[in-house]
Amino acid sequence: MAESTNSTLEFPAARSRDVLTEILREGAQQMLATAIEAEVAEWISSHAHLTDEQGRRQVVRNGRLPQRSITTGVGQVEIEQPRVHDRRPLAEREKFSSQLLPPYLRKTKSIEELIPWLYLKGVSTGGFGEALQSLLGAECPGLSASTITRLKGVWEAEFGDWNQRSLEGREYVYVWADGVHFNIRLGEDGKCCILVLMGVTPAGKKELIALHDGFRESEQSWKELLLDVKARGLVVDPKLATGDGALGFWKALPQVFPKTREQRCWVHKTANVLDKLPKRMQPGAKEKIQRIYMAETRQQAGEAFDLFLKMYEAKYPKAADCLRKDRDALLAFYDFPAEHWVHLRTTNPIESTFATVRLRTKRTKGSGSRTACLTMVFKLMQSAEKKWRALNGSDSLPDVIQGITFTDGIKKERVAA
């Protein structure tokens, strides 16, 4: 009987906790729903000037997206987000992406991911408490400004150690380079950005190699980054580097790693070529460009390349010249294993990591320190690094390291020593 009585006495308290949790969950759901509704309304209002010939708005609401679940400190909260429909031609459309609840935050309740993301979105240290309470629940630990400040200090120390770590004995078969802009937190110069260098090890694991604040077009900034990693022990030249053709990286690379071959990013190149064509022609041109880099062999790619030039160089010489000038660097991937092509053709390993934190809002007052910004980028990439998948066909990397020849992605013979 005593055991039964104790069980009965505990039940009301447990029931009260369940009721309180449910109230908190409903409150969080209503708050998030209201905030997202306001965000969508503001987005549509900012595009109200876009109308067709009959005066009808081109950017409108169109029902709701499927319900999704957000992990919070009070459990799962179900959210329905309004759907935004852009009626303009495909090349002119803009995709609405919620800045409050992007896919990146769908399943996480880690402060180590939320704080860097909020910082780079322009949230001040004093505003972290309210933001984290909204996402993680009222009893979430680490909500005070002083706690956040101490945590940022610990992370800055971690970044400092990582930024000076020895790279002796490290080797990266491929590297990707890009400049990622964070205008809000890097001062008043709009050209300022974070230079990111990633690589893949002989085992096929992708790793963040270096972060450096500089200027996207600056040869000097990239040279400083490359010289730094070499001074810390990275002495083996990568076999191939992938990046945007506009980077000062390409002038700096041969000065530090002269044996590394160049591969231009097809995503950046496609955007640059299409920008030099009328919008009505861009969908067709994009399809023709895709036929080049998706070709099974270098010869077929060359034929598609020549066809594009023949079709556009007479009326649109700038578009043709933009593609023509990097021909060899655009097709370098054909000399490497076919399983690796999907990784080598673009800087997507970097782009996808920053897709949800790249800033599109106006610059806020009071930009943060360079160290703080670099630290937040480092923490986000450190978190994302855990989810990076290994290189396809990693078992072919030893052949690449040994200098074995690949023709159209197929292994042929060992290069003579």
Structure, described:
The strands form four sheets. The protein has a five-stranded mixed beta sheet with strand order 7-6-5-8-9, sandwiched between helices. Strands 1-4 form a two-stranded antiparallel sheet. A two-stranded antiparallel ribbon has the order 2-3. It is globular, with a radius of gyration of 25 Å. The N and C termini lie far apart (86 Å). β8, α6 and β9 (261-264) form a beta-alpha-beta unit. α2 (111-120) packs across α14 (370-385) and α8 (282-293) packs antiparallel against α9 (298-312). With 417 residues, it is of the alpha+beta class. Among the domains are: 18-101, no CATH class; 162-265 and 346-386, Nucleotidyltransferase, domain 5, CATH 3.30.420. The protein is built from 15 helices and eleven strands.
